Amino acid sequence: MKKYFDVYPRVFYPSFLIILVFVFVSILGGDSFRIAFSNLSQRITQTTGWLFILGVNIFVFFCFWIAFGKYGNKRLGGKKAQPEFSLFAWFSMLFSAGMGIGLLYFSVSEPIQHYAKPPIPLESNSDLAVQALDFTFLHYGLHAWAIYCIVGLSLAYYAFNKKLPFSLRSVFFPILGRKIHSIYGDVIDIIAVVATLFGLATSLGFGAKQIASGLNYLFQIDSGVGTQIIIIAIITLIATISVVTGLKKGVQFLSKLNMLVALFFLMFVLIISDTVGVFKIFIESTGMYFQRFIELGTWSSSFVSSDWQNDWSVFYWAWWIAWSPFVGMFIARISKGRTIREFILGVLLVPTLVTFFWISTFGGSGLILELASPGLISNPVLSDASTSLFVFLNEFPLSSLTSFIGIFMVSVFFVTSSDSGSLVIDSITSGGKLNAPVGQRILWALTEGAVAIALLLGGGLRAMQTASVSSGILFLFVLFFMCYSLLKSLKRERKKNILKKSKIQ
Question: pTM score, two decimals?
Fold first, then answer.
């Protein structure tokens, strides 16, 4: 039996049961479940939004403080450890896992929506355009990657340096001690599995909706729920094949392929659009982002009667936090041999700057078109955000070809998110093993697709967003404890090293 399944029963069975119950309730609940999802999401964001905003700012500060402090030179895996992957492969995998589908879905639609319906009203259209990009940068910038960084760094440190199981419970060893192997550790891992599944399901839902819109644009195929379910099923099957081949073959190959296609796509759009304008937008918007970093990061719409904050910033923070067990564990898995400083700066800065340039190219070019012809991009985007990329590409030559490339990229990002997530969940539910049996990988890859379909049937993207927010608030507290635990362990190890050196002298 262990040839196909090697599970840690106290985590595997409760996690699988919770998810299974949720799938059946989602499918059978109908309209009542959809209404319940909407009400729950609104209640959570209204009461805990301030905590999400406070938390993500603490995480950014914590990451930079660790990177430039006295612990930055410590190497993950020990002094003699060497990186397992090249820099290009490393960046490709963490970028594909961390931001893929979201960037393709929102890079045009989000700046346009913030411009058409600004969170902070301004008189000048050009100021509105810069503000729209800055809020998009906020959601995809340092705050998002800091969340992933904390989980990834903590896991890598405890797994590679302390030789503890590759599981979320291990990062609480300085606080819980041997109790990490008790029910306390089980609860932490169960929360991580459920949060990961719901975070992935949200991303897969956005991806399926965008692929369906692209197929409708190119081939007039119906883009309804039925088509989206078929897309999820097909992509899940491909992801299952990829996850069976393992990290060094399927996942690494698809990540590199997608990174190369993404770079080609980016360069092509940059050339056919207003190239000079894009570079100006990138410089100005990036500069304004860093100038207003604290202002944007702490803005809580305290005296504004609007749902914008809850629908955008709070949802993003909850979504990234729900994704953090998956992305953090995946980044940790591929980061052995990096120093803590190299890890933090690599995870925080490189993806952030690449993301900003991507958003400047697509979102900035979309805003240039919108400013020149009001309503050209905003009207269809406000009607259906999933069409934004294809509406945008339609304004340039070879739109059918570029739209097809866009569908391909969403599909591959879809696959890399799913198979990376499966590998991570396999590790948690097998008690921290880095290479779970094939049967187990297949089970979790199929389960991810089932959860995405169930949420789609149970309430569409609103249901998926609610699932992310609900699991995100639980894991937010885990992240707070994770920061404390990591700092406590680093301090303890530093004191031991100082004592050893003093005895030798």
Answer: 0.87
